Amino acid sequence: MAVLNVEDLHTYFKTEHGIVPSVNGVSFEVKEGETLAIVGESGSGKSVTSLSIMGLIDAPGKVEKGSILFEGSDLTKIGKKEYRKLRGNEIAMIFQEPLTSLNPLFTIGNQLSESIKLHQKVDKKTARVKSVEMLRHVGIPRAEKVFNSYPHTLSGGMRQRVMIAMALSCNPKLLIADEPTTALDVTIQAQILELMKKLAKEHSTAILLITHDLGVVAEMADKVVVMYAGQVVEYTDVYTLFSNPKHPYTKGLLNSTPKFHEIEEELESIKGTVPTPTNMPKGCKFNPRCPFAMDVCTMNEPALNETSYDHKVRCWLYEEKEAVI
Amino acid sequence: MIKFLFKRILEFIPVLIIISFIVFSLVFVAGNPVALMLPEDASQEDIERLTVALGLDQPFIVQYGKYMLGLIQGDFGRSFRYNTDALPLVLERLPATLELAAASMVIAIIIAIPLGVWSATRKNTSMDLLATGGAVIGKAMPNFWLGIMLILLFSVTLGWFPVSGRGTMAHLVLPAITLGTGIAAEMTRLIRSSMVEILSQDYVRTAKSKGLRDFFVVYKHAFRNSLIPVVTITALQTSTLVGGALITETVFSWPGLGQLLIQAVNTRDMAIVQASVFIIAILVILMNLLADIIYRILDPRIKYS
């Protein structure tokens, strides 16, 4: 059964320049123990999607339409108090910047035991024991000492381990990781990914992984959602995505990733930039940057169609082929 | 900690020497006070005799040297008007001023913290505009005007509080509100802007993602962080507080340092002016030291060095 089922999610921001549809009709599901990666450039709406699920979209943003089913209950319809009970408990989140995601004025122990005390209703002593145990579990040496130290005394990698310990301290069913390794150097990245994988497997935690790094996707994901300008443009399993990418944007992303055996070739890039929300092109949102753009692309927006089993693409190239066949 | 304090206290010495020089120079330039001390029909001879007797005919550097020699021994000279040593006179007035300053600080804090935080968490709503607008008005109101208006309303018309003087708690209310309003307004604005910035920090989002209640997110995770700039700036404004106290004390005939200082300036009672300014300078320096200590307590990232 799917732990999380996002259906036609629309998250809009009201700004001075009008309404900005940051997330515009996104649907996907994450099953127990499964890792789903959302890939896309900055501004594609991946982070807003994750914050919408956490219920942390602040004004002027709002989830306008759609449903977020978590274990069957619709998060867009539950009250503030019920949401708080889920947050940090059933659904936990790890953020991109370990350096700024911990409060500089409180000790690691204080911040870690905070959610344990809150959700597991245990006393200070038990929370301390559990926290130290969690710190050991995420591979922090001298856990007792780290418990009493302040965030600024730890390295970035250590702080991200602390964030993981914090997120997993209440055994959540769903872990949302928003670019968890982007701010870390490469060797630490691998360690952190390995750690997340291991811990998620132990408790069959579902992971929603937000990233722009296809290397991380290949390492971690079971399924992949490719987002562009607030929409899903391709949705399939990780093997199909790498072996048979269909959307020109996905192909572009894959081509712009350095590969070992092609080291001498010049790295390709997708020309142009992501359109700003107030200046969206008509028709397919990718058409100004697309090397295969046709007339129809500039006029009508394609739908997300299942072109083959478990492989959805939002592109006129495939709609036409389907239509011909 | 002790090393840090010791170092900071050593730093006071050059600051105090510079202040003594400035204060002495200002009073020196203000002219010979002898004319004001003698009756109007005193002869030129009398004036000269007294000038020589007080040593006021000597060159600046000699007078300053004597003054500094006295300072080192804790002697600020004698008040011409009261004919006693200046320092005890000033110190005798100090508690009244400290009482007023402390009371207005308490009022300011009681108003500013909830209002600033409340305003920041409702950024850009009409309530926030109202609070910010109120703060601007509070800051813009001159102390003497507010004091007089409060006296008119609460003392003269309603008769709730005494018009002037010091003694009971009732005497303290109006002067403390007068002096506290401006500080509260400034603090509200500071806390608001600091909180607005802190509320958008990553660690606040982390706190929210843990499922903490808004109250804890705001008061535990955000508020303490937002206090760091507030404490620093409030301490730097001690001089504004003292300036306000001078005026407020005069309006309410509050027998504090400010009132004494203003009278001393009017009568050119040099020793008292010098001693008061010196004591005020020490107060300002001490407040800055206190702020330094407070934000070292608030923020573990700052080391004593």
TrEMBL record, chain A:
Highest taxon in the source lineage: Bacteria
What's the protein called, per UniProt? ABC transporter ATP-binding protein
Recorded source organism is Sporosarcina highlanderae
Recorded topology in the membrane:
Peripheral membrane protein
Print the keywords alphabetically: ATP-binding, Cell membrane, Membrane, Nucleotide-binding, Transport
Q: What is the lineage of its organism?
A: Bacteria, Bacillati, Bacillota, Bacilli, Bacillales
The similarity comment for this entry is: Belongs to the ABC transporter superfamily.
Gene Ontology MF: a single term: ATP binding
Cell compartment(s), UniProt: Cell membrane
TrEMBL record, chain B:
The record's section on InterPro entries has: BPD_transp_1_N (IPR045621), MetI-like (IPR000515), MetI-like_sf (IPR035906)
Major localisation: membrane
Q: Pfam families from the xrefs? A: BPD_transp_1 (PF00528), BPD_transp_1_N (PF19300)
Name of this protein: ABC transporter permease
Q: Where are the transmembrane segments?
A: 12-31, 100-121, 142-163, 169-185, 227-252, 272-295
Q: Which PANTHER family match?
A: ABC TRANSPORTER PERMEASE PROTEIN, DIPEPTIDE TRANSPORT SYSTEM PERMEASE PROTEIN DPPB-RELATED
Keywords tagged on the record? Cell membrane, Membrane, Transmembrane, Transmembrane helix, Transport
Ranges where the ABC transmembrane type-1 domain occurs: 94-291
